[in-house]
Structures are given as structure tokens and as C-alpha cells.
Design a protein that fits this description.
Ribosomal_bL32, Ribosomal_bL32_bact, single chain, ribosomal protein, two-stranded antiparallel ribbon, alpha+beta, Large ribosomal subunit protein bL32
Length: 59
């Protein structure tokens, strides 16, 4: 098994971890009702996914 010969410095460790930040979710608008929703998921307000209704919603 490979083992590092030298200790990795704090600067190099922090540079590597600089890309580990969590990004905020990017909601998109639903094509049916226009409400914001997460991509690739059923719209919570109208129940549509990919131009067809998959969850029955009461009005």
C-alpha cells in the first residue's frame, strides 16, 4: 500500500479542500405552473414531471 513520504502542508491541504464547498440548490421553474422546483423531480405544487401528471393534486 502506498504511504506518503512527507507530511502534506496545511496550505496544500487547504488548497485541495477549497473545492469541497457545498453549493446551493439551483431551482428551475416548472413548465406547467411556473413554480420553482428542483430539477429532475416532480413539481410539488402541480404534480407534473416531464409534461405528464404523475401525482394527483386536489385543487
Amino acid at each position: 500500500m502506498a504511504v506518503p513520504k512527507r507530511k502534506q502542508s496545511k496550505a496544500n491541504t487547504r488548497m485541495r479542500r477549497a473545492h469541497h464547498a457545498i453549493t446551493l440548490p439551483n431551482p428551475v421553474s416548472c413548465p406547467q405552473c411556473g413554480e420553482p422546483k428542483m430539477p429532475h423531480r416532480v413539481c410539488p405544487s402541480c404534480g407534473y414531471y416531464k409534461d405528464r401528471q404523475v401525482v394527483a393534486k386536489e385543487d
